[in-house]
Amino acid sequence: MLSEVERFVNWTRRRSPEARTWKDYGYDLRFFIGVVGDRPPKEITFRDIDRFIAVQSEQGFKPSTINRRLAAVISLYGFLTAEDDELVCPVIFRRHHIREHQRLPRPIDEETLRQFFFVITDKRDRAMFLLMLRCGLRIGEVAALRLVDLFLEEDYPRIVVRGKGSRERGVYLSRQAETALQEYLAERPSAKSEFVFLSYLEDGLSTTAIHKRLMRYREEAQVQISAHRLRHSFANDLLNADAPITSIQKLMGHRWIESTQTYVMANDKQVCADYYAACAKLEGWQ
């Protein structure tokens, strides 16, 4: 099966060379082979998938990780089925999909944000994390940002972001985010690399490098912050400002409106108003 995985990963890479999907597929499918063995795809049965799930559960992997790896297996078999229509995917959704505990998004309070940004004096890093907080960018989207994606001279400055599945979306810049980005660009080294944010080697930063920077500042500021919570705060702030949920969906790069609606579930002002209006009418609730 290893040769089939290599062909699939290379095909995925050719389709979306700038996305990291092919890397994730490669890692997850090699893990899969490590459990079920390097056998022909036709020999893999649903019982092998049972064992694959059991091994991961015993090792303490989260349901989201297990489901992601199952999705990689399904994608592999979808690729192979185009070559052999008699091949059957051994993953059975009703049997193998693990129900995940859904946590509501948790924004970051203003004092924590103030402490976090207070310790960031590097202009590059400040611009990166403000793009997450004020524009809702994922950490991978910040890493992938290129100079040709910047449209800062327009009346409403914006950037073009490549999100999941290499889907592009336009994101507008708040004045704070634009100022931070312009200040960094003014001192950015003149390098051959097209990436906006450069490492000391004058090439693009990896998501791991950006994460390490965040961890360093988080420790220095003694706060609990993640790149994804910065993005959550962006959506929460727009929701509090009564921005239409469809606009928030487009700015966040969500494919499905249900993904955006989780922010409404976490901070529903109408439910809050209805609850306290009812409390005012109920004797003994005041």
Number of domains: 2
* CATH third-level topology of the largest domain: hpI Integrase, Chain A
Q: Helix and strand string, N-terminal first?
A: HHHHHHHHEEEHHHHHH
Large-scale geometry: globular
Percent strand equals under 5%
Strand arrangement across the biggest beta sheet:
1-2-3
Q: Give the terminus-to-terminus CA distance.
A: 66 Å
What does this structure look like?
- This protein is mainly alpha-helical and 286 residues long.
- The protein has 2 domains: 2-96, Orthogonal Bundle (DNA polymerase, domain 1), CATH 1.10.150; 110-270, hpI Integrase, Chain A (Orthogonal Bundle), CATH 1.10.443.10.
- It contains 14 helices and 3 strands.
- The chain has a 3-stranded antiparallel sheet with strand order 1-2-3.
- The radius of gyration is 23 Å and the shape is globular.
- The termini are far apart.
- The mean pLDDT is 85.
SSE diagram, text form:
Elements: H1 2-15, H2 21-36, H3 46-58, H4 63-81, H5 93-96, H6 110-118, H7 123-135, H8 139-144, E1 150-151, E2 158-162, E3 168-172, H9 175-187, H10 207-221, H11 227-240, H12 245-252, H13 257-266, H14 269-281
Task: Describe the structure concisely for a colleague.
It contains 14 helices and 3 strands.
Which characteristics define this entry?
single chain; 286 residues; mainly alpha; DNA polymerase, domain 1; hpI Integrase, Chain A; 2 domains; 3-stranded antiparallel β-sheet; 3 strands
